[in-house]
Design goal:
alpha+beta, seven-stranded mixed beta sheet, 9 strands, about 25% helix, globular
Length: about 200
Amino acid sequence: MRRLLLALPFALLPLAVAHAHEDHDHEHGSLGAHEHGVGRLNAVLDGQALELELDSPAMNLVGFEHVATTAADKAKVAAARKQLENPTALFNLPKAAGCVVSSQELNSPLFGDKPEADHDDDDDDDHDATDAAHEHHHDHSEIHAHYQFTCATPTALSNLDLTQVFKTFPATQKIQVQLIGPSGQQGVDATAKAATLKF
């Protein structure tokens, strides 16, 4: 899942990758603390390959964290999933860059694509599937989206514009971004008022 990220020898990446393994251990002081209104994004531009990995509390995207049972809740989950399935628009990638999605993966207990044992109301010692454990702990449901693009003209990708993410999911107040591109790596907090980041 984190192949490209793990393969890149950057000092900040162990921090970014570590959060995925620490979330279920309640290390709320770590980079991966589950905080409503705050999402995390890893963005890597390497030649023509662009990789985006978004982790967000479900609360930011759908307004709740329980498994959807009512028609209204299911509609919210379906709407959020549809938005996430259109990353070119969501991340406002410039047409001039010619970015095409080469792979995408969405995971969340809310999408119902995890084993039944993964329900939010389970107690502490439930037996989560190993691959689901880092995305789910107690009643803190996460939504994880991982995209890989091939961009014909990566030089047109001078910026990463998250305006549409904030507009689409207004409960998201801040996104902690690890950005790696031609000019090096940087850690930036993006907000609706400062949503454009330079690669």
